[in-house]
What does this fold into?
Amino acid sequence: MNAVLRTDITIKEICAGFVYNELEGKGLFGLSGRLVIQPEYQRNYLYAANNMEEAVIQSVFKGYPLGLIYFNKVKDDENAPGAFEILDGQQRITSLGRFVTEKFAVKDADGVSQYYSGMSDELRRKFDNYKFTIFICDGTESEIKAWFHTINIAGIALNAQEVANSVYSGPFVSAAKAVFSNSSNSNINKWSAYIRGNVIRQDFLERALQWVTKSSGKDRDAVDEYMSRHRFDSDISELKKYFDGVIDWISSVFKELRSDMKGLEWGRLFEMYHNTPYDSKKIEEQVNKLYQDEAVTNKRGIFEYVLGGGDNPSLLNIRFFEESVKKTVYARQTAAAKKSGKSNCPDCAREKSGNSKKIWEYKEMDADHVTAWSKGGESNIKNCVMLCKHHNQAKGNK
It folds into this structure.
């Protein structure tokens, strides 16, 4: 089966001659009669019943991609009636056709419901001229049916970046893919130390776009807007310069590669800390020390912790004293306290209060570092002291 990519077909062309069967809930024809919207193997129209058709229209208003559409070429003469039928995209195209033929209204930016005929000329032109990304497939009936089954049931779905590459295809995507989606690029091994993903599935290109747009993995709007704006640019120097800047900054601050570096939010960290001067030798000493500290259970948090000057220990998920250590120290302190006639909480024993001789139960006490962990104290029996809950909470990080 052959597939030809078309990116020049607009909504106005698709919806020309649109016929909708209200009784059966089917969009029957479009593309001036050349497109059969409801082939026999397609399901009936479902978007209206599921309140999804307005979302399709709003996506067009906002310039969002509608995803790939697949046509099946059934006649050699592409200008003949019924020359094509929809292989995938029936629900989306039917939504567009129903809107154009005034079957429902959508709310504009001011929250006012508008039918197609009531839109401003500017908005209607934008809507009419929206272009699809369509693959026109040509094959035998069995091949077409098998492909339909694959893309709708068992296929590997296109990820967001792969869809965006198709939607915004042009000089920019071609140039960007030559750098960031090229498995033969000698820089891939270096980048792989910091970026998680598959170069073929566009993960490195997606990360580069997220970094330059300062967006997160869940926010596609900024990336899509950037790709749309640069679609016809063959120069990707801005994208590459920013990406290289992040990579160079990481490797200049952290001289030794560690597996825990892969997949961290380096773009966000770069924005937060790239203007802060660091001594890479001291940074490496801090990282090594934290890696050797058994109390640090989140090794991936070490890098952000040291970049932030050690002000956020929660990044490290510190494991404090083992239960056996606390019970041993409690027993030792309690025995000594009873012998001296003082409280088994050292802080209570030093105070002239009603608790100066109180023997606290184990459940009434907490373990604390003699020397705070953040100041170099280790989480071992030699650095453990049991305090009553009041004094432990009052001590904090002193």
The radius of gyration is 32 Å. The chain has a mean pLDDT of 87. The CA atoms of residues 23 and 44 lie 11 Å apart.
